[in-house]
Amino acid sequence: xxxRLAHLKAAHYFVVASETLSYTAAxxxxxxxxxxxxxxxxxxEEYLGVSLFYRAGRKMLLTSQGKTLAxxxxxxxxxxxxxxxxVKLEPLAGNLTVYGLQSITSLWLMPKLWRFxxxxxxxxxxxxxAEELPDLQSGDIDVSIYxxxxxxxxxxxxxxxxxxxxxxxxxxxxxxxxxxxxxxxxCCWLIQTNIPEYSWSQWGKEYGLxxxxxxxxxxxxxxxxxxxxxxxxxxxxxxxxxxxVQEELERGELVKPFxxxxxxxxxxxxxxxxQSPRLERINAFVKWIKQESEENIVTPYSPTKILSxxxxxx
Amino acid sequence: xxxRLAHLKAAHYFVVASETLSYTAAxxxxxxxxxxxxxxxxxxEEYLGVSLFYRAGRKMLLTSQGKTLAxxxxxxxxxxxxxxxxVKLEPLAGNLTVYGLQSITSLWLMPKLWRFxxxxxxxxxxxxxAEELPDLQSGDIDVSIYxxxxxxxxxxxxxxxxxxxxxxxxxxxxxxxxxxxxxxxxCCWLIQTNIPEYSWSQWGKEYGLxxxxxxxxxxxxxxxxxxxxxxxxxxxxxxxxxxxVQEELERGELVKPFxxxxxxxxxxxxxxxxQSPRLERINAFVKWIKQESEENIVTPYSPTKILSxxxxxx
DNA sequence: ACTTATTCATTAGATAATCTTATGGCTACA
DNA sequence: TGTAGCCATAAGATTATCTAATGAATAAGT
Lengths: 314, 314
Hints:
Arc Repressor Mutant, subunit A; 5-stranded mixed beta sheet; 3 domains; D-Maltodextrin-Binding Protein, domain 2; 11 helices; DNA-binding; alpha/beta; 42% helix; 12 strands; homodimer
């Protein structure tokens, strides 16, 4: 590293002035007097032995050397600013960016979020939904909810919730087909995600249903969310984490034809950087969300109730 | 740009300390007292609300946050240093990097260079030879000598020298073949660069020599320098800028079988950035080299003299 | 042409940041 | 157990930097 880096403050003032092309405006931005800016820039010019600004009437313009310098310095100071911001401790109040799969954010988190905002009106939660592995080190994401833990030295992971995966269909489909036995599944579209552990072939293996026939009706969706949307539209039976459709099950909009979950449940993991400058905010959020998930571990409705309710003759 | 960039000096000290992992060593590098470093880093830690170093016995180690910060800051300060250096005026004394094609540096410039060092013992000339277009803005090259001008707003170009291009061969080849007429060329290897203007076919066109026959012996070299090397080894006749082999012609090592130059001479251009911080040095060099080239514009030996002088019996 | 407002330059004095010196505590090592 | 090496801290000295006031130059409005 450079051991002789003189006049850093002057360089900073210069960069601000190079953006505004006005000492007065720069001085305002920097909350100092115009004279301070003028002096610092003069100092820098003397140090470099080169003039950086020249007057064009009432305006100040950069000399060609000034332009060169400003380009280099501005990227330097940006990096420095970014570095400082990425470790500078922030107070409790402020923004908090939560990342999650579409399914869990829209189906589980969003409906609960108002309660958090209620408790912490000074924390502004911003949701960010996508399907790829989150980067918790970049500073763009504070907390993530993902279906695998984010394994890194500096990342803290907690299991947020664990949910069985069961076949789900719409009430209409359920009433139309009847579903006296699991073989009745074979005359419906079988919807699944692209995760092999949670596929119909796995389910078939566990419950002795042969799905090999090529006359099967398959559909593969790229996210839980899309599968649930399909099921709601009555398009088939979906192997779905139960908690995601808890409300719909309660309302009877969606139905579990049989309460036959996959042996492997699905877990979601809460993760955040251990050294985030927003740890205080993060901890408040994590504490709250853990409570929320614990209050909802038990599925309040037995799906067979709906089943028998809608078909008492069985 | 960031308008609130506090404690830049502290950040700088921190980066130096993060490299040495010692406040004392950092203080020495920075030419300040150890206490100054200690205080600045403490200040920075307080500002960030985060500890950056921790003591491990007698050593200081970076905390994980310290590491993060140091990584970002060091690249930032490097950019700043680079920027400042690229405009900071330098005194006459110091390094000067001269770029040129292999041929011109080794055959023309290098042999003269001792005279410059003699005049300017405080300017240390470093030669850099390659074949591609030089970048005079990067700061790595101060002056270039190239066969086309470097056309840029901020670049100054001067013609350094203009030289005829003539057929050249070794004395041995000359004596062996005799060369009574230009048709005798046809029984030798014809060596040329890959520049069409300076090719044998161009020469043949100008002097009415038909070179179409497929029994021709051709060799194409990628630089003047390589062609001259080939000729010196007696491998054929080369279309060569005369000034490059002036000494060899004088000594009789190489010979011009006929003084029949191409109509288009070859020019070399001296170029440098108008806003280099090393302009003083550059000007000294340019002034000298222009003088050198003007003193040598005329070829002192008529090649036909060597021709007749070296082989009186023929 | 004459104000007037705006902008940067310059100065002197005030203020704040930063440095040094001196000292003390801790650790590693002989 | 002493000693040397390293960092922390405090007080006072020294610089660096700021502000306020003023001047000079320009552009725009009257």
